[in-house]
Amino acid sequence: MHDLAGFRLVDARTGQLRTLALIASVASALESRLSDRRGESVAIVIADKFDLVTVLLAASQLAVRLVPLDPFSPAAAQSAFVSASGARTIIADHEIDTGSDSQTVITVQELLLAANEPDRVISFPAMQSHWLFFTSGSTGTPKGVEFSSDMVRHNVRLALDALPFEPGFRTASMLPAYHTFTLIGDIMTAFAVQGSCVILPDFEIAQLDFILEALATHQVQTFSGVPVIHEVMTAFADRMTGLTLRFVTSGAAPLRAELVERYARLFDHPIVPCYGMTEGVCFLSISDPARVRPGSAGVPRVELRIVDDRDDPVTSGKIGNIQVKGTSVIRNGYFNNQASLKESYADGGWLRTGDIGYLDCDGQLFITGRSKNLIIRGGKKVYLEDLEALFDAGTVAAVAQGGENRERFVFFYEAEKYDDRSVSELISGRLGIDHMPDRFIPIAQIPRSPTGKLKRQILAEGLQRGSY
Q1: Does the CA dihedral 286-288-292-298 come out positive or negative?
Q2: Nearest-angstrom CA–CA distance, 342 and 55
Q3: Dist. CA 297–CA 286, nearest whole Å
Q4: Which of 131, 228, 245, 345 sits most deeply, having the most CB atoms within 10 A of its CB?
Q5: What's the whole-model pTM score?
Q6: How far apart are CA 171 and CA 12, in angstroms?
Q7: SS3 per-residue string spanning 361-386
Q8: Which of 274, 302, 323 marks a domain boundary?
Q9: Cross-strand bridge partners of residue 225
Q10: Are residues 113 and 246 in the same domain?
Q11: Burial level of 314, CB count in 10 A (0-12/13-18/19+)?
Q12: In 363-384, which positions are buried (b, 16+ CB within 10 angstroms) versus exposed (e)?
């Protein structure tokens, strides 16, 4: 690793810079407040993204367990996660009702005011915190995933080895920093190579002009995105001027092969498809930027195998269950949930990802869906993601009907973009009549997580309640 004295955070909204020295002084101020809470969970609920990233980097140097939470989630959800983590300390930038005299709230303002001359040197190699993230729960109840700084460093190095990062590289963050994709792919990579990271608002189409202007002004060279971001930027290609992007990554949701090809034709840099999960810190596979294969999720960067339902490996080209293991993959199940060990792992320590896919003869990984989204009709397998891949990212969702009934499913679509006829004709024309949903349901907006994942669970619960 390189000397880190040049690392910078840049607030795209204000132009404010925060240097490594300032972040170190925040770490010193925080350490003095947490001197008696070594090894404990510290919940972080900060709405201002620039402050959030500052605190995360500062706190990463301390021997505590960091628990970044969605600051915009309901107070009840935040309280539940704080309780589940066992945190007695909360760092926040807004009023928090702890509901407990044993919990202490430290404000960001306190830390910044106390930030004087640092008495420490902080660096990427010196990180010592543990991290606890609660998964998005798009198909069920969120689970706690804990990993060490060693695992973070290893996963960042996987990215640095696979992607053309260089000393001083300029990244941008336009995804929520309380999730690992931008934390690892944009923030930690810049931290590791003595670069800079431009902190942008979380992506919204209303912010597109501002985001593009900031990318150009700060000469950003890469950012992590989700398919809907790349869809929007491709649709507004005429506005993508004056940019210095070398590559962008895509993850968190399926990426259409057609989008990869169109983006490459329009711009002078590729979308690099990746596959990952919080249980592996972030990256599990990363495409070669010089040889992106549309439809593929790239080359595995951890140990990865495809197995049948008996956990026996299958031959290349055959679809099966994806299992992984490696330095940055959790090995002890979910946080405070020993019961998860048996169901989460196959013999040999292989983590069951819950995803379905195959490896081709060149070792490229292709994701075909989630095991929970597999429908069996007359012995024929229907992967719900195959239907969704025909449409713009995040505008449709296929959902199994009736919970345990694996033969029926409904298809939600955004009413402003499609109608029953256009949707049914595309599905039957491209996939065949056996892929036709049992019902079509137009709705105003498909629910998605902050990182663009479909929230099928919300739609499934609505079906069970009879709301649709």
Answers
A1: negative
A2: 36
A3: 7
A4: 131
A5: 0.82
A6: 12
A7: CCCCEEEEEEHHHEEEECCEEEEHHH
A8: 274
A9: 250
A10: yes
A11: middle
A12: ebbbbbbbebbbbeeeeeebbb
Q: Which domain holds residue 59?
A: 8-274
- Please provide the DSSP assignment of 37-105 as one string: -TT-EEEEE-SSHHHHHHHHHHHTTSSSEEEE--TTS-HHHHHHHHHHHT-SEEEESS------TT-EE
Residue at 440 is within a domain: yes
Distance (Å) of CA 229 to CA 39, 61, 318, 455: 38, 32, 31, 17
Task: Work out the number of other CB atoms within 10 angstroms of the CB of residue 202.
Answer: 15
Over its length of 468 residues, how does the chain's per-residue pLDDT go in tens digits? 334 458 999 999 999 999 999 999 999 999 999 988 999 999 999 999 999 999 999 999 999 999 999 998 888 888 889 989 999 999 999 877 766 677 899 999 999 988 776 667 788 999 999 999 987 544 456 689 999 999 999 999 999 999 999 999 999 999 999 999 999 999 999 999 999 999 999 998 889 999 999 999 999 999 999 888 998 999 999 988 899 999 999 988 778 888 999 998 999 899 999 999 999 999 999 999 999 998 899 999 999 999 998 999 999 999 999 999 999 999 989 998 887 788 889 999 999 998 989 999 999 999 987 777 777 665 566 778 788 888 888 899 998 875 544 668 899 999 999 999 999 999 988 887 878 898 999 999 998 877 667 787 788 888 878 888
Is the distance from CB of 367 to CB of 355 less than 8 angstroms?
Answer: yes
In sequence order, the β-bridge partners of residue 45 are: 92
CATH number at residue 450: 3.30.300.30
Q: What is the CATH number of the domain that holds 176?
A: 3.40.50.12780
- Length of the chain equals 468
